């Protein structure tokens, strides 16, 4: 019997999952937010080891698991490269004054009362235009987070608003990779898929926006207007703030809209940030470089340092000092470590058919249309937790449920909508998932901190289940 034909029992498949959940729970209890500093990575590796031991007992060869691990890590390489480039871009955009300029002008035009509402809407618009939640959060999101903190708002709430808007736009954009992947897995076309998603996605974002609007009115009295002026003054004291700086993000957004791959677009954006730093911020260049024989040497050292390492721009305002710091590519290495470990665990579980055994058992329990949709949503979330990658959370359930949906007379777009409502949006809520780890690192906000406020992402899987059950009720009523 070949490895592909081997099939572990449900109990055997659940052993690594139970072990992982137990270790992750202990990590959260003992380390809190510090669990991402290394203990969760070790938990994933140890759980992969447990999965490998179980698989060896079943009869799988180590080479099969190793191939699965390599394939799993390879599938995440694009995300890892993007993550490194986002770190580089954050550094040069800080050095050049692009992010400080966004914060400076944003404080002038964004009313504290509607800030959370506006942050969600603006993030959604940019994400629809670019088709990328990652790019939106790494550029506009960073500036919006800084503005929100200056306005005296909790970083978790602000990050939740940004992520809600960015992931709504990602879902509804025809340029998004996941929006193209889901219908491909389900067997429908792109625009039919987007049309069907609107039935659940629009109510979800509407509820989220109402919540953000209410939170904004509740928090508006806490805003210190004088503090806003001090922040602007501190930024203007260190940087040459002007509208020309917005040319760089405009170019990056234009490239992504024109379907240029995120990797070259972010690299070009990072390099342009360095060029604009040399042109507009010579005083900052001198400070960051620590001096040099001439301006060329200072520029080279400062731009290079901003791309790979820590830079901190000190002002007389502590709040501004927190905003004007970044870790460059090196600041992303801890997140990359987490992603690699997660992919190791996912690779072992996938290559030994353990994930398939678990999902197959779930399908058997789905007797009605409503329970089938609920099972699909639950399976997508399960894959986000265990396989740690949103693409696997779409691809594997899509393959496994497609035939079942067809046999029960359901349209493929019902499946594709469910895959996106539960697979795409919940990935950012899992700290060790590629999306959760990335956005936490980019924004500098713990996943546990922003997850309770990412209302759109929380509501979406429940909305798709509710919509399925309402459809059943309506059909039964009309049949009578």
Automatic annotation (TrEMBL):
<feature type="transmembrane region" description="Helical">
    <location>
        <begin position="450"/>
        <end position="470"/>
    </location>
</feature>
<dbReference type="InterPro" id="IPR018461">
    <property type="entry name" value="Na/H_Antiport_NhaC-like_C"/>
</dbReference>
<protein>
    <submittedName>
        <fullName>Na+/H+ antiporter NhaC</fullName>
    </submittedName>
</protein>
<dbReference type="GO" id="GO:0005886">
    <property type="term" value="C:plasma membrane"/>
</dbReference>
<keyword id="KW-0472">Membrane</keyword>
<feature type="transmembrane region" description="Helical">
    <location>
        <begin position="80"/>
        <end position="103"/>
    </location>
</feature>
<dbReference type="InterPro" id="IPR004770">
    <property type="entry name" value="Na/H_antiport_NhaC"/>
</dbReference>
<dbReference type="GO" id="GO:0015297">
    <property type="term" value="F:antiporter activity"/>
</dbReference>
<feature type="transmembrane region" description="Helical">
    <location>
        <begin position="142"/>
        <end position="168"/>
    </location>
</feature>
<dbReference type="Pfam" id="PF03553">
    <property type="entry name" value="Na_H_antiporter"/>
</dbReference>
<keyword id="KW-0813">Transport</keyword>
<keyword id="KW-0050">Antiport</keyword>
<keyword id="KW-1133">Transmembrane helix</keyword>
<feature type="transmembrane region" description="Helical">
    <location>
        <begin position="42"/>
        <end position="60"/>
    </location>
</feature>
<keyword id="KW-1003">Cell membrane</keyword>
<keyword id="KW-0812">Transmembrane</keyword>
<comment type="similarity">
    <text>Belongs to the NhaC Na(+)/H(+) (TC 2.A.35) antiporter family.</text>
</comment>
<feature type="transmembrane region" description="Helical">
    <location>
        <begin position="196"/>
        <end position="218"/>
    </location>
</feature>
<feature type="transmembrane region" description="Helical">
    <location>
        <begin position="329"/>
        <end position="349"/>
    </location>
</feature>
<feature type="domain" description="Na+/H+ antiporter NhaC-like C-terminal">
    <location>
        <begin position="165"/>
        <end position="471"/>
    </location>
</feature>
<feature type="transmembrane region" description="Helical">
    <location>
        <begin position="109"/>
        <end position="130"/>
    </location>
</feature>
<dbReference type="InterPro" id="IPR052180">
    <property type="entry name" value="NhaC_Na-H+_Antiporter"/>
</dbReference>
<feature type="transmembrane region" description="Helical">
    <location>
        <begin position="12"/>
        <end position="30"/>
    </location>
</feature>
<feature type="transmembrane region" description="Helical">
    <location>
        <begin position="263"/>
        <end position="280"/>
    </location>
</feature>
<feature type="transmembrane region" description="Helical">
    <location>
        <begin position="239"/>
        <end position="257"/>
    </location>
</feature>
């Amino acid at each position: 019997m070949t490895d592909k034909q081997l099939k572990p029992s449900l109990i055997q498949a659940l052993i690594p999952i139970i072990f992982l959940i137990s270790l992750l729970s202990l990590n959260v209890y003992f380390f809190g937010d510090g669990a991402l500093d290394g203990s969760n990575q070790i938990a994933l590796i140890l759980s992969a080891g447990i999965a490998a031991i179980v698989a060896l007992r079943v009869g799988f060869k180590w080479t099969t698991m190793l191939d699965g691990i390599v394939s799993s890590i390879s599938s995440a390489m694009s995300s890892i490269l993007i993550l490194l480039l986002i770190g580089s871009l954050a550094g040069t955009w800080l050095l050049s004054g692009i992010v400080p300029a966004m914060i400076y002008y944003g404080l002038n035009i964004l009313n504290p009362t509607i800030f959370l509402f506006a942050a969600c809407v603006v993030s959604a618009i940019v994400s629809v235009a670019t088709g990328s939640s990652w790019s939106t959060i790494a550029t506009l999101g960073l500036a919006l987070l800084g503005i929100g903190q200056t306005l005296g708002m909790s970083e978790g709430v602000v990050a939740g608003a940004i992520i809600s808007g960015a992931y709504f736009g990602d879902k509804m954009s025809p340029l998004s990779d996941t929006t193209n992947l889901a219908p491909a897995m389900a067997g429908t076309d792109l625009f039919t898929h987007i049309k069907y998603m609107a039935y659940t996605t629009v109510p979800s974002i509407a509820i989220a926006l109402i919540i953000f609007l209410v939170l904004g009115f509740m928090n508006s009295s806490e805003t210190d207007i004088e503090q806003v002026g001090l922040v602007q003054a501190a930024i203007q004291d260190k940087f040459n703030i002007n509208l020309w700086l917005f040319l760089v993000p405009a170019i990056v957004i234009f490239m992504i809209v024109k379907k240029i791959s995120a990797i070259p677009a972010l690299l070009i954006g990072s390099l342009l940030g360095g060029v604009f730093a040399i042109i507009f911020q010579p005083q900052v260049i001198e400070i960051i470089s620590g001096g040099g024989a001439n301006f060329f040497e200072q520029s080279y050292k400062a731009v290079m340092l901003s791309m790979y390492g820590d830079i901190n721009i000190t002002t007389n305002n502590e709040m501004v000092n927190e905003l004007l710091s970044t870790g460059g590519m090196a600041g992303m290495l801890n997140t990359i470590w987490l992603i690699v470990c997660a992919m190791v665990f996912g690779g072992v579980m996938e290559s030994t058919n353990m994930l398939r055994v678990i999902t197959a058992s779930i399908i058997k329990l789905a007797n009605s249309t409503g329970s089938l949709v609920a099972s699909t949503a639950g399976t997508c979330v399960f894959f986000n937790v265990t396989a740690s990658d949103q693409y696997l959370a779409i691809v594997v359930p899509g393959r496994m449920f497609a035939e079942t949906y067809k046999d029960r007379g359901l349209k493929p777009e019902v499946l594709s909508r469910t895959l996106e409502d539960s697979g795409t949006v919940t990935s950012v809520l899992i700290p060790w998932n590629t999306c959760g780890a990335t956005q936490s690192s980019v924004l500098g906000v713990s996943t546990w901190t922003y997850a309770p406020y990412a209302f759109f992402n929380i509501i979406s899987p429940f909305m798709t289940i509710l919509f399925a059950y309402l459809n059943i009720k309506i059909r039964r009523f009309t049949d009578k």
